[in-house]
Amino acid sequence: MSSASISIVTPTLNAEQYLAECLASVAEQRCDGLEHLIVDGGSTDASRSMATQAGARWIARPGLGQAGAINVGLREATGDIVAWLNADDLYPPGSLARVRARLAAEPTLDVLYGDCDVVDARGRFLWRQQPGQYNFERLLKRGNSLAQPAVFLRRRVMDQVGFLDESLDYGMDYEFWLRLRGLRIAYEPQVLATFRWHTASKTATHSEANWRELITIVRRHGGGWTPYLVWSFARARVTVARLRMQRALSWPARTSIR
Q1: Statement: 6-200 belongs to CATH 3.20.190.10
Q2: Per residue in 160-171, pLDDT tens?
Q3: Alpha-helical runs (H) found in the chain
Q4: CB contact set of 74 (below 8 Å; sequence gap of 6+)
Q5: Helices 172-179 and 66-76: crossing angle, nearest 10°?
Q6: Contact between 39 and 57 (Cβ < 8 Å)
Q7: What is the pLDDT of residue 34?
Q8: Which of 84, 121, 143, 232 is most deeply packed, by most CB within 10 A?
Q9: What's residue 233's pLDDT?
């Protein structure tokens, strides 16, 4: 049984705050045939030097959005197995070895995904996302339950379903999961990645735009509003309002008056 090569794509834009941890989490997997591609949208911080020092391949694409950057990396990837890992996310030790072993044992398997730990800005555990078996109808009616950092694909999948939709800013992964319907997909009930949730992330700062795009995606694939989506949307609005209030209340404390 031969070992498959793995390509990890990381889109970046001034991501130095968390990039070193991301790079280290990939390098420390110590898998043969592993490449890490950093596709950068025009960073002015130390991201490039950090990436090159870590042995990652730097691909500069100034002005390119997140989905476009990921697509560039996926097209440049040489690995039999591909995934994308955002600059503020991580792989726990042994994740890629586990993924490669499972896919090597099941050559007809197209997609493998697993559980994902969610942590805060300082790396403190918040919750664990355990999506269960792939179910198109459930995804359509309840929204995205697959944690993007914990999803791994055969490179041939893009030949079958295409690449990410670059017109999307927030739900490009969710829309891609819905297109996987009909492929051979397996769920590995192990933590394969760590997602960092923080107030500066795109998920947190653009919640309402995220939801508008989600409903557009749902309708594209034949769905619509469901009681669960309505409830989730209302909960998201409350969370956004609370975050805005917290920021407003903390503003005077951060401002010194001389």
Answers
A1: no
A2: 999 999 999 999
A3: 16-27, 47-53, 66-76, 95-105, 136-142, 157-161, 172-179, 202-205, 207-220, 227-254
A4: 7, 9, 82, 84, 155, 158, 163, 164
A5: 50
A6: no
A7: 97
A8: 84
A9: 77
The number of beta carbons lying within 10 Å of the beta carbon of residue 209 is 13
Which residues, listed in sequence order, are joined to residue 36 by a DSSP beta bridge?
A: 8
* 3-class DSSP assignment, residue 79: coil
Q: Are strands 57-60 and 185-196 parallel, antiparallel or unpaired?
A: unpaired
- The model's pTM is 0.89
**Two tokens, residue 79:** 């690995």
Segments making up each domain of the chain, as ranges:
6-200
Q: Characterize the bridge pairing of strands 111-119 and 185-196.
A: parallel
Chain position carrying tokens 């670059």: 166
Contact 184, 202 (CB under 8 A): no
Q: Which tokens is 150 given?
A: 């914990």
DSSP state of 166: T
Partners of 195 in the β-ladder: 118
Token pair recorded at residue 254: 């951060």
For the record, the structure tokens of 118 come out as: 């969610």
Residue showing tokens 């008056």: 257
Burial of 126-158, coded b for 16+ CB within 10 Å and e otherwise, reads eeebebeebebeebbbbbbebbbbbbbbbbebb
Pairing of strands 151-154, 81-84: antiparallel
Q: Going by C-beta distance under 8 Å and a sequence separation of 6 or more, which residues neighbour residue 233?
A: 211
